[in-house]
Amino acid sequence: MTIQWFPGHMAKARRQVTEKIKLIDIVFELVDARVPMSSRNPMIDEIISSKPRIVLLNKADMADDYLTKQWIQYFKEKQIPALAIDSQTGTGLKQIVTLSRELLKEKFDRLASRGVKPRAIRALIIGIPNVGKSTLINRLAGKNITKTADRPGVTTAQQWVKVGKELELLDTPGILWPKFEDQLVGLKLATTGAIKDSILNLQEITVFALNFLKENYPERLKDRYHLEEIPEEVVSLFDEIGKKRGCIMSGGYIDYDKTSELIIREIRNEKLGRLTFENPSQYKENNH
Ligand code: G4P
């Protein structure tokens, strides 16, 4: 789903999410485990405010396991419980209910002591487009219930979806915008496929991705493209991959568009293995 975010839409989206938050006990903030920071809304802490929250590192099946564990630790240090999940297969989803119950135990005990009848925990899934919100709702509900998630500006009636006896979800997730004014965020989201019809130039995305791989996963790059050594200059690396894969135009020139498409497709299809594009140590230093 592509949403054009304009200031009016952003304000409306924020209002819609704020209204929904009033109805629930806990927020499930969905992020992409491959880009846990870039796939968050820049104002999320302010929007969620004091509501209990669990950060769900979705698509963990595609992310680097070692870094996913580091990210869970990063959030823990910020007093935000986090879980790694794969909404497509359902891996890790059981823990969501268990952890929610733990986090809300005091609140529910308090309610019970005042004679309020026990009820299911009410939750809202929040995240930027393409992070897997609909997939998660459908997976938790065990059936295909999500209509197209509500777009900023369109109001639909709220409905609750039952997840076992203990949890109820709002059927339309909260959609918020990424920090797209930051170009690096855009490049990371485009590389992972969160932004599809990218406004960014494909070759630019590929240069970013190759530089990243060169720095962080050089062996994978060598293995995948049968490189003896990785050239210093990213342009030479681009050329070499283009040549090896036959992305050549008439006259013998490298077809950079075709090479870019191939590299980006292979990254998204995990041909270079499970990749995470952000390391929590960078964010700790910057005190984010
Ligand atoms: P949204 O509601 O937040 O916008 O996201 P949605 O559920 O539509 O999911 C976006 C894409 O991400 C979907 O792929 C979905 O199958 C995939 N996805 C969601 N959760 C997971 C996960 O845990 N692991 C993996 N590997 N994929 C997940 P799609 O519709 O086929 O689009 P695409 O594959 O062309 O990107």
Automatic annotation (TrEMBL):
The keyword Nucleotide-binding applies. NCBIfam families: GTPase_YlqF. It comes from Metabacillus herbersteinensis. Keywords: Cytoplasm, GTP-binding, Nucleotide-binding, Ribosome biogenesis. This is Ribosome biogenesis GTPase A. PROSITE patterns: G_CP. It is found in: Cytoplasm. Transmembrane segments: none annotated. It comes from the Bacteria. Interacts with ctc. Interacts with the immature 50S ribosome subunit. 2 molecules of rbgA bind to one 50S subunit. Belongs to the TRAFAC class YlqF/YawG GTPase family. MTG1 subfamily.
